[in-house]
Queue: 2 jobs
Job 1
Amino acid sequence: MERTFVLAKPDAVQRGLIGEIINRLEHRGLRLVAAKFVKVDRGLAEQHYAIHKSKPFYEGLINYITSAPVMAMVWEGPNAIAAVRQTMGATHPSEAAPGTIRHDYGLEIGRNLTHASDGTHTAAEEITLWFKANELINWSRDLDCWIFEE
Ligand code: IDP
Ligand code: MG
């Protein structure tokens, strides 16, 4: 079972789309492991987006992610990292496939509603950055056998 880190970004929170994002991931069959509502400070934002430090959009990105609270989550399931990125859609909403969150709710790359880890290494790093070990809940659902084959 794979775990991935997900954010409903400030625009999603301001627009009342936390529930919609959770709904889509729940309906996909993914299992929630952890969630918290966070006002991101600049230090956390800089750590989370360290890989983008040299990019021209970096300052705007830090301002965006610290501009309002975010909903930070961990979700798990088979191939959860790829599954969540597929449900989110391409980074630029204008390139995201219809039916994805970024397509259905977004227009601009700098207001693309969600973050999701892009690989096993970043997923592990991001989960550790945002959550303490005891905030991650190991549990099972009665319907897991109808979603997970094994
Ligand atoms: P991802 O969120 O799909 O993984 P990344 O390339 O990792 O995309 O970029 C991180 C975030 O930085 C994007 O989700 C978006 O909010 C922002 N971003 C990326 N490229 C641009 C850009 O060209 N202009 C403004 N913001 C950008
Ligand atoms: Mg990324």
Job 2
Amino acid sequence: MPKIIKRKQLAPKIVHIDIQAPDVARTVQPGQFVILRLHEQGERIPLTVADFSRQAGTISIIFQEVGKTTIDLGAMKEQDNIHNLLGPLGQPTHIAKLGTVVCVGGGVGTASMHPITRAFKEAGNKVISIIGGRNKEFIIWEKEIGAISDQLIITTDDGSYGVKGLVTKPLEEMIRRQEKIDLVVAIGPVIMMKAVSHLTKSCGIKTMVSLNPIMLDGTGMCGVCRVSVNNETKFACFHGPDFDGHLVDFDLLMKRLGTYKTEEKISIEKCERCENASH
Ligand code: FAD
Ligand code: NAD
Ligand code: FES
């Protein structure tokens, strides 16, 4: 069984775990994710591989406690076993030498951006990273992202650290200054990926986003993760999760993410630990 070998609290309700998973660590590529289950009857949840060590056989996952399974995972300790873990899943991010790549990470999405940022840097691009959080406490992996970027810009919604405003603010300023940008990659809340894509579409800057619909099997069989891209139905787990942000129907994605709101609320209410975690 995959074992948790390290656990670290990064911010309120944001947890970093390293898991012993040699088969995944051996082959995983930037942009790919795993699906894990905490126990036999447990829900299957997709989480991005934020880092990996092929030598040590470990993968790093950074997750936010938002519902029953992520709260239960957050309560697990070092040396605890995860029931099972499937991966690597999804298509790896297409990495190439393009020139200047701007990597935009919103909240916990910053960690998912980490291996992609590193791969673009290693491919010889100039990498400018913009990472944002609600306030200083929610800025994660500043040191890690800074170490693999030519330039790092930090934003906080309340101005408690870095530039005051959303991640789109410095990007908008770069576009206004007509800085040369060959690709923008955005990962974070759907509303943020929509805003970034809207901004870059008007000036024709190619933009890639990583979509996070509800998933079930994660292998293209069930259709639960369907998204609309260029008016075509795609399965995010199989065709993605990366897609051209200018072609994604973000409003449909947001609507579909709310499909099980009632059931998710009931499942939180039934879970004593979740009750305590929310206070
Ligand atoms: P639930 O009770 O199922 O849901 C609680 C709340 O979270 C609800 O408001 C619900 O609408 C929302 N939610 C449920 N599923 C998703 C989803 N897929 N995306 C966004 N919101 C959701 N989260 C991380 O914290 N770190 C990651 O690295 C990460 N990587 C992901 C990679 C992929 C490919 C996908 C599809 C999702 C990823 N997510 C990530 C989101 C994560 O899977 C969900 O937060 C998780 O499934 C919620 O499960 P739960 O039982 O704790 O909460
Ligand atoms: P959050 O709500 O705290 O927002 C983080 C940052 O995103 C903000 O500080 C801001 O800079 C930016 N942002 C938010 N709304 C914006 C808008 N309307 N316009 C422009 N910028 C905006 O985020 P959080 O609570 O950390 O949630 C992170 C989200 O990322 C979750 O929804 C999670 O499911 C998602 N996520 C996605 C993936 C993926 O692979 N796609 C991976 C991890 C997490
Ligand atoms: Fe079933 Fe993608 S999760 S097809």
